């Protein structure tokens, strides 16, 4: 069985974004970068399937500059993926979801994968489109927001989160699944696997290598703006909790006018 | 310090592990003094307990730099875990991996690498430690067996050890450090007892206990290396052990420094963060400078050992300076935190108590100065 994991490098959620005024680009030079946490669920699920037995080969696929290699090695190969394909092409800087999906689909078409796993969204742009767009481009069934995955013979059964409950769906393989928190608990790479990760194949390709014209963006980012500055915090002081609550209610009503 | 890509990944992994698994329990196990069996097992699964074990016996066989990075990152969050990993690898696994027979390695290393059991080292006695000549534990030949009698003190990880390397006098006539041999003693051998765990100032969850050997009968092949080689073997073991304690001390210092730095930027007095007062800023500057010096010494000792050069004097310098730095930094951290630093609400006082071990264990700061003194006077 061949499994592909679509992985994206994103800024660490604790990264401070310095954006003093509206700007068309974010200065990302000082960012610490990590694997998108939702993609970590995809990697973990693939490794669990491999550990369950049978011939399984896991390929991690990503798009990004040279610096993504470190994340791919540490968070994909050292965790248990067998190899990686990295599309590095300056023409893809700032590519939108549709462009990214076209490139990933082109990589995926080079092999016949039985299962494609990816995070339900990336924590940087929160768009949640790429996985589904890839499946559409390849004409594959896709199941999104999955919290439990069971593979059968040529099919899968997945539990999806829906409002107030869960939905259980079946799909034939090959298929694409987007992973949600709760699917599994991503492991840390073990030391022996970290040592071995360097020897695993990591292939770097460009759009030209894929026989692809760099796809044009359908969406242009106009500007990023910093959130409005937060107001001062005011402490309501009173001797008794009841008096403090009364004063708080008065302030919310008369000054903030929210109640 | 320049790290290669593997070393960076290992450091990050150890940091992630410490943040997710050790930070939530460090204060509690310090209070209770309970040995953290669950997280020690998890460290086994990640390979932390097989750092000094060759790959052929199921270990990771890492370079010493990677090993020290793991010990530093763990100690930065929890000294007890740091000491457990350090003692297991450098005192427990190392002598068997480097001096043991194939049968001894087969018997003890695979289980040690995965954390099924720990390994430990029994050198110190009531009247012997730094002065090996005071060794009173004896091993006497009886046919094809050895019979061991004696007591040992301050033996780390002993309740959880599958086997303990024990030093004993085999030539009762020999004087001083001569006539000492080392034995691999399975802890379930009749006559071998691990006594009650010590109640300590710091490193409270680390397992430390005295041992009693009463007519402990061992087969001839329990001897580690050559008969009479004991003194040389434990000197070699302790050279590596000193790098371990340096890394523990470095981690504790960094942990305390992190606490103080964050606090100094958040705590306001007279309308500004206390870090903006030079009294505090200069303390942080001194702490950071001492830490960096300790780091350079520690990793230089690692580098020398990794390339196979003589490293004993550098390990002693690293241990001395890192331990004294840990005392200085943890003391200043408490000072910066003021009243909060004196309470168990913040980890500064725990780092302070844990750090004290580093100026004592595996050769006191005074013994390190003797090692360094001899080196500079004979070089």
Task: Describe the model.
The complex is a heterodimer of chains A (259) and B (379). With 259 residues, chain A is of the alpha/beta class. Chain A has two domains: 2-205, HUPs (Rossmann fold); 228-259, no CATH class. Chain A contains six helices and eleven strands. Chain A has helices at 37-51, 68-77, 97-109, 130-138, 191-197, 241-254; strands spanning 2-6, 9-11, 33-35, 57-63, 83-87, 115-119, 142-151, 155-162, 165-172, 175-179, 202-205. Chain A has a nine-stranded mixed sheet, with helices on both faces. A two-stranded antiparallel sheet of chain A has the order 2-3. In chain A, helix 3 (97-109) packs across helix 4. Chain B is an alpha+beta fold and 379 residues long. Chain B folds into three domains: 5-118, Butyryl-Coa Dehydrogenase, subunit A, domain 1 (Orthogonal Bundle), CATH 1.10.540.10; 121-228, Butyryl-CoA Dehydrogenase, subunit A, domain 2 (Beta Barrel); 232-378, Up-down Bundle (Butyryl-CoA Dehydrogenase, subunit A, domain 3), CATH 1.20.140. In chain B, strand 2 (138-142) and strand 3 form a beta hairpin. In chain B, helix 9 (312-337) runs antiparallel to helix 12. The two termini of chain B are 27 Å apart. The A-B interface holds A 70, 73-74, 78, 188-192, 194-195, 197-198 and B 5-6, 8-10, 12-13, 16-17, 45-48, 50-51, 55, 60, 62, 66, 70.
Task: Please give the alpha-carbon distance between the first and last residues of chain A.
Answer: 59 Å
Q: What percent of residues of chain A adopt helix (DSSP H or I)?
A: 25-40%
Find the count of extended strands of chain A (DSSP E, 2+ residues).
11
Structural class of chain B: alpha+beta
